[in-house]
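Example S7 (structure tokens).
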């Protein structure tokens, strides 16, 4: 039983700077009169640019380098931890062997 998605309670209002509002002032003056975005009801502009192929290539290379650095750190961690675990297991086996031989010898 599919449900309809919730509809937005209010639509955003876009006032271009050239457009005149009902009071006869330009949209830019209206925006500055409303206050900054930190105040309740304030408005601000957001510019979203397109990503060029060069930027996309740079982002991909940076992402690859980040993943490679994480993998190298993980591999280095394993190169330290695996021998340490092997040494601890070997020491525990040797100690267990000597304990057993000391008990049976007395």
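Recovered sequence:
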């Amino acid at each position: 039983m599919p449900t309809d998605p919730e509809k937005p309670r209010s639509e955003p209002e876009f006032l271009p700077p050239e457009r005149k509002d009902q009071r006869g002032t330009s949209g830019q003056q209206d925006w500055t009169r409303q206050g900054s975005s930190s105040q309740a009801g304030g408005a601000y502009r957001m510019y979203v640019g397109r990503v060029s192929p060069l930027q996309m290539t740079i982002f991909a290379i940076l992402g690859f380098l980040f993943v490679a650095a994480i993998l190298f750190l993980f591999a280095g961690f394993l190169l330290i931890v695996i021998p340490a675990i092997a040494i601890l297991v070997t020491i525990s086996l040797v100690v267990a062997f000597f304990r057993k031989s000391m008990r049976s010898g007395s």
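Notes on this example. Residues 26-37 have pLDDT under 50 and may be disordered.
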